[in-house]
């Protein structure tokens, strides 16, 4: 093979290699472009995740407030229920004591009336006997 043919062959091969390198370069540019798109999408996803984390933080904060409010309401309700119950018990005890006192007073009054009734019964009996003696007394 002579020198000229060799140079032509080498030029042809270099041309093919350069064409292939251009194709590879083009493909690398396409891959880089795609990687840029993926990076952009990842940035968008990260932004969305940040927004979601922020919202989740707000929800957690509001849930904590609701729990604290519920606990506060339960405590206040318990205190009010206790106050009502103990007030009712005190009122019931006071009413029971008043009723016991009234029953004792009524018992005392009944006893006094029984004594008085017994005395009146005795007076009636005595008067009846006195009348009987007066009616049956010998006439003169």
UniProtKB/TrEMBL annotation:
Keywords: Coiled coil. The keyword Coiled coil applies. It comes from the Bacteria. Residues 96-130 form a coiled coil. The keyword Coiled coil applies. This is Chromosome partition protein smc.
């Amino acid at each position: 093979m002579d020198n000229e043919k060799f140079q032509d062959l080498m030029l042809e091969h270099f041309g093919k290699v350069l064409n292939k390198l251009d194709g590879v370069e083009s493909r690398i540019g396409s891959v880089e472009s795609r990687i840029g798109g993926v990076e952009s999408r990842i940035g968008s996803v990260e932004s969305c995740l940040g927004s979601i984390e922020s919202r989740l933080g707000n929800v957690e904060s509001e849930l904590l407030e609701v729990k604290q409010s519920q606990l506060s309401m339960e405590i206040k309700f318990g205190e009010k229920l206790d106050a009502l119950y103990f007030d009712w018990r005190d009122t019931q005890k006071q009413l029971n004591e008043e009723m016991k006192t009234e029953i004792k007073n009524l018992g005392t009054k009944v006893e006094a009336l029984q004594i008085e009734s017994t005395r009146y019964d005795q007076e009636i009996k005595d008067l009846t006997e006195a009348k009987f003696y007066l009616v049956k007394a010998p006439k003169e």
